[in-house]
Design a protein that fits this description.
The chain is an alpha/beta fold and 296 residues long. The chain is 58% helix and 14% strand. The two termini are 34 Å apart.
Length: 296
């Protein structure tokens, strides 16, 4: 049976831990509000840019720009976005599990996979695995800016244009709400042609009104040269914002659960402490009564 002193120390230790988890929950909630506002502001523009470029790619000559060229090779680059810190529940574990499943699926199809990682958790995880890490970025979420998105996207653009890989996929957590995140596998390079919502005929083909060509000013090549890099910069920045907001939401939920669990543990230990103390007092009373009876 543990001593009363050890139980008091354990209660004090759990209370101190509870204070820490409660403070971390409040910090995560404050950061979540800012991160949520940023992603909700950036997401519509990024989605519309992706829709416009996907629709545009159906009408242009895909050989006119290297970022539109589809290659028949099997070299796959996977960008994996995790956090730099832990204590955020299954946030990182879900991404890493999905990444391993996706990589193995690609390899089963005969693809050669290389990795780029964002966040210390992905870097540390894949350093202990057989897959090579081509590039890594860490420590960017504390002061996340648009320049970080440009830096990551430009590196990937340069590698794609140098024919280092044929396709790029991104695996990250998409922010849904403060308590919900969704792991997403998204193809970034090359741009896939898409059809705008509602603009298909009964056979699933583009409607007649969507088959016409655009009029370009100044010209098609110059327009693509300006829009395509900007599109990837924006998508990279959106992905970082999604991951940042999802991380803070996951951390807030995890710390809230830890705080409640600490409260339940304090109640259980306190109850056990009271029972142990009562048993010790009862034993001392019985010893006193027994000694008094022996003196009679």
């Amino acid at each position: 049976m543990p001593s009363l002193q050890s139980l008091r120390r354990k209660i004090a230790a759990v209370k101190n831990t509870q204070k820490i988890t409660k403070a971390m929950k409040m910090v995560a909630a404050a950061k979540l509000k800012r991160a949520q506002d940023r992603i909700l502001s950036a997401r519509p523009y990024a989605h519309k840019m992706r829709e416009v470029l996907g629709n545009l790619s159906r009408r242009v000559n895909r050989a006119s720009h290297p970022l539109l060229q589809k290659r028949s090779g099997t070299r796959i680059e996977v960008l994996i976005v995790t956090s730099d810190r832990g204590l955020c529940g299954a946030f990182n574990a879900n991404i890493l599990r999905k990444a391993v499943e996706f990589i193995r699926e690609m390899e089963s199809r005969g693809a050669r996979v290389t990795l780029s990682v964002v966040g210390r958790k992905a870097r540390d995880f894949f350093r202990r695995r057989a897959w090579p890490i081509r590039q890594e970025w860490t420590g960017i979420f504390d002061r996340l800016t648009y320049e970080h998105g440009i830096d990551i996207a430009q590196d990937l653009i340069d590698q794609f244009q140098k024919d280092i890989f044929d396709e790029l996929y991104v695996i990250y957590n998409e922010f849904k709400s403060a308590i919900q995140q969704r792991v997403v596998v998204e193809k970034l390079f090359p741009v896939d042609a898409v059809v705008e919502f509602g603009q298909v005929d009964g056979a699933g083909e583009p409607a007649e009104g969507t088959r016409g060509a655009y009029l370009y000013e100044p010209d098609e090549d110059e327009l693509l040269a300006a829009l395509l890099p900007k599109h990837f910069h924006i998508q990279a920045y959106r992905i970082l914002l999604e991951s940042s907001a999802a991380e803070q939401g996951a951390r807030m939920a995890a710390m809230d659960g830890a705080t409640r669990n600490a409260g339940e543990l304090i109640k259980k230990i306190t109850l056990y402490y009271n029972k142990t103390r009562q048993a010790a007092i009862t034993k001392e009373l019985m010893d006193i009564v027994g000694g008094a009876e022996a003196l009679k």
